Amino acid sequence: xxxxxxxxxxxxxxxxxxxxxxxxxxxxxxxxxxxxxxxxxxxxxxxxxxxxxxxxxxxxxxxxxxxxxxxxxxxxxxxxxxxxxxxxxxxxxxxxxxxxxxxxxxxxxxxxxxxxxxxxxxxxxxxxxxxxxxxxxxxxxxxxxxxxxxxxxxxxxxxxxxxxxxxxxxxxxxxxxxxxxxxxxxxxxxxxxxxxxxxxxxxxxxxxxxxxxxxxxxxxxxxxxxxxxxxxxxxxxxxxxxxxxxxxxxxxxxxxxxxxxxxxxxxxxxxxxxxxxxxxxxxxxxxxxxxxxxxxxxxxxxxxxxxxxxxxxxxxxxxxxxxxxxxxxxxxxxxxxxxxxxxxxxxxxxxxxxxxxxxxxxxxxxxxxxxxxxxxxxxxxxxxxxxxxxxxxxxxxxx
Length: 399
What we know:
By secondary structure, the chain is an alpha/beta fold. Helix content is 39%, strand content 18%.
């Protein structure tokens, strides 16, 4: 993919457990305003909107997309609503890129939000999330959404010798990093022992192995270089960042239908990554990628992603986590935002928030210990269901 699809502006709200002062439209409007200020652009010059949100039920609004479109100042412009579970935000970015490459628009505002923190009670939230599995064939068997993830990591442990303490290191890492991120839901200073001693969810996962449900919103403004040069007053002030590649794939939605060989792995993620890397010209991801925002719905899911994204060899994810290979200062800096475990997950905004973090890293705008030195290439990784849909987007500095 050429560098003509630029990330012109980014913005996001803090991710929090509950925003009593704001609806989802309020938060999306906040994120979009920040993105427009960042771009030095006006909403009136934008030609299309893409709305990302997972659930009408969490947000308590049917047909939310056109309501958000009006809230961000794009009434009268075409829009699309994208839904892809945990991959919703990343899929929305991919949709915006597709529209730009097809010539349907020269500037696309991608915005997403969710109120899936404490806006509904825990039992209702658990039930809604469980509906992300196959409701007819799998949800009645598993009940909670943690169970199929637990089965996958249990097989990973049996096959490769991975230990619960190794993926607990990821929960410790991401929550520690989140302490340095002012937009993070809940940073924590915890130990492996704290993770293993937290309440059980679905063995071997404990409470601190699971990601946070958050209220929040994020936005990115994508544009052609020609449009950016005409309408973005801040374009020349920092290194330009482009979408270099995008890949998506699906898998059999029922875990029981997948092959024994791939049972502990995310096959769709592997295929999505290969497609995105091929488009971006990446041949050795472990050496060429500087920063990665990875979908850590559970701590073990990040470990599995190391392997399926090609950041380490298959079976080495546990050792890599224990060695800190993907910590700050490691071979690839993974989840410098704190990830879903620390920054939190407002589902429709998650993949967009990942892009915000990666863009800021590539521009050199992230302060302190989280800043990746001279970052040139970054990726975002999200999936829906139990890896049933995966989206990988690649971003890079163009000079």
